[in-house]
Specification:
Helix 1 runs antiparallel to helix 8 and helix 5 crosses helix 6. The chain is globular. The longest helix is centred in the N-terminal third of the chain and has 32 residues. The chain contains eleven helices and two strands. With about 300 residues, it is an all-alpha fold. Strand 1 and strand 2 form a beta hairpin. The relative contact order is 0.21. It has one domain.
Amino acid sequence: MLDLIGISSQALFGQLLLGLINGSFYALLSLGLAVIFGMLNIVNFAHGALYMTGAFCAWFMLNGLGINYWFALVLAPLVVGAFGVLIDRLMLQRLAGLDHLYGLLLTFGLALIIQGLFQNQFGSSGLPYAIPPQLTGGQHLGFMFLPNYRAWVIVFSLVVCLATWFAIEKTRLGAYLRAATENPAMVRAFGINVPLMVTLTYGFGVALAALAGVLAAPINQVRPQMGADFIIVVFAVVVIGGMGSIMGSIVTGFMLGLIEGLTKVFYPEASNTVVFVIMAIVLLIKPNGLFGRAT
């Protein structure tokens, strides 16, 4: 059937694989955005820049400190997450109680500053980051060749996303986080430090973006604009899934990655706009998003 319309099965499955790879990054990045918005009501426009910072952090660890990919996968999100904690403590908490637009403008300005600093230091060209030796090569599945690193990215991203959903939706800590956003006074009455919880939540959301950056470094190279390329699509993913919906971000991220891959096969000219067309349709039919709740 595919041959009749001039499309080989190799091309189809290859684009679906690329779609799953992009979907993995969409899911991780939108998950971090959903955590921050759902728990703190902050539209974090600095998310793309912090994703890029995670990739640069891993690159510097490898080339400057000799720290390999596996350690960077843990250390880079911790470093960038700590930077996110500083951002919240020094800047975002000063906007508490003000209109959400102030937080959006602040994080947008931070994104421009961070990207500008990296671009001034490293230029616009991409810096190579080697695939770890344990994940080089691939598997020939008969209908396509599956690189080991890309398979790792898909599986690892899915595990991290589901673990985050479970921690927030099914554990006592997640219940405290959700309660702190709805009734902070009551949560304080139980002796819980709500400002600290808010700060750590922002740091965790930022760490998820940095983790996505480390995963992307061997595939997309490390460059200052890598976050700007993704962030608009990621915001569309969050809107389609439902602002603040954890499961919505995960499902929508992977789903839109696959749809984007299929569009590149059957109608390449629309591959850059299909996500935004879907967003417009969803907003017209279900303004709260596919998994969002009415407010």
